[in-house]
Amino acid sequence: MVENYQDGKQNKKGFNKLLSIIIAAAVLLIGGSVAAFVLIDKSPKANYFLYEKKTVDFLGKQVEDRYGSELEWSEKGLENPIEDIYEVSAQLNMQLSDSPGYITPEQILNNTTITITNQLDRKEKIGKASLKGSFGNFSIEDINFFITSEKVMLGLPFMNEILQLKGDDFGKLLNQADPMTFTGEESIDFDMFFNQNVLAEEDMKYIEDNYINGLYEALPDEAFTSNNEKVKIGDDNVDTEKITFQLSEKQVKDILKDTFTKMADDDRMKEIIQEYILAQGTSPIRLGESMDVLIPNFDEEYENILQEAITGLDSFMIPDGFTSTIWVNKDIIVKRDFSIELGPTEEELVTFYLNGTLNQNDTDVSLAYELGFVDELGIDYKINLDGELSNKKGEINDSLTLTSDTLKIIYESKETVDKSKKDFNRTFTLSDDTGYAMDLIWSGDAEYDGDQMKSNHEFTVAGDGIPSNAIVLTVNKESKVTDNVSLPTEEEVKDIGSLSLEELMTYFETEVTPQFEEWLMSVIGFGF
């Protein structure tokens, strides 16, 4: 049965994914929680998490200084209806075919322009997309797509009516087409396309109040020690405060066991996880009762997973416990060293580690981090992140390199930021262990002015076997805050979900097909 598969796979996958998010967010949330009283609590424990938060805030400030206008405009789209108009064209400076012909493929491409108009109102959960294009000597327009939390609509240039399908009618159509496979209870939850938050704000607040703060209180003060130490960061000898956070194997297990036990008896936490699985761990297609608001057997799955985790902790091995050391200068972590070895048995121990340095002054930031794990066979899998960031009064020169055993990705950016205006030239370089390399070059400009913005973008590709500027893609964008997003009236709509299968086939044969043929002849002509 579909529901049995969904229960077993989706519940555990979504539950484990949510646990990972909670654990990853814990340090930052603890940092935010202790920030309020750290003025009176100067303990190494409080400072450890406060420095973690301040370092994240510092890195966030680097992003904000570079992309503040983009972030601000993105936030406008969360509160207001936004209209985006994209004009897309391409220039192909190479010959695709040697075949003789009056019109070549590259000529068609070079004389093609596509315009996409998007309107989105996240609050009202309404979206609209319109497409038109010119291709050489002919054009196509009036292709319109609409979506709400309940239905989708499609308007085509050759049709007098706009096709509509409600999410709740999806199963009915499937059942008529294949009653042996589909029950008719299937539906499409279009609301999922408008929900982007991992967790609702009130749910995150509940987790913070009932788990994160409790986790902070459960950490013993003596697990944190502090002393002054001079360390070498790059070419500089830096005076730092060194804080070591260390828990024994028993302490780690006790904290986790207490947390899992509390979760097992927490109905509100159970609801949060269930809602998360439905929102993030499934597709918008609901397969009948198996994906209803209440997942069958979820309570049993929830309790079983937590009980297995609690019981499994007894034999699980963390031989050296948990150790994380940070070195702090001017409230910023300039060096860190973290590692933990764990596994179900001594033969299956795996070591996870993170270490690196960060050096910064008024204009420049240098960073070098190494993240990886060593498996039970002793094989080291790691990723290195190295960066040089510079921002001198709006003149930005950045370089970031991400390296693994088989792949290297380099991002280089030269930008000029002047209040609401920006010019940029960005290059992404991808190379592998065979020596092959390819560049994606993205250049352009942008201007933000209150409730409107415009930008121009040019993309080119260069690499082994690809001549420079052989392909140029141009995207020009204009956006503005709009009053609302309008939908077709009931008189303009043909609701195909209300038709029987026979009525639907008749409709397409007697109305849709003749309209399409007539339109095609008017666009292309009899010489097609």
Keywords:
single chain, 528 residues, alpha+beta, 2 domains, 20-stranded mixed β-sheet, two-stranded antiparallel ribbon, 9 helices, 33% helix, 39% strand, DUF945 domain-containing protein, transmembrane helix, transmembrane
Strand content: 35-45%
Radius of gyration: 29 Å
pLDDT average, as an integer?
A: 85
- Describe the largest sheet: 20 strands, mixed
End-to-end separation in angstroms reads 50 Å
Helical segment count: 9
Keywords: Membrane, Transmembrane, Transmembrane helix
Protein name: DUF945 domain-containing protein
What's this, in brief?
The protein has 528 residues and is α+β, with helices and mostly antiparallel strands.
What does this structure look like?
This protein folds into 2 domains: 480 residues, no CATH class; 30 residues, no CATH class. 33% of the residues lie in helices and 39% in strands. The protein is built from 9 helices and 22 strands. The strands form 2 sheets. It has a 20-stranded mixed sheet. A two-stranded antiparallel ribbon has the order 7-10. It is globular, with a radius of gyration of 29 Å. This is DUF945 domain-containing protein. It comes from Ornithinibacillus hominis. Keywords: Membrane, Transmembrane, Transmembrane helix.
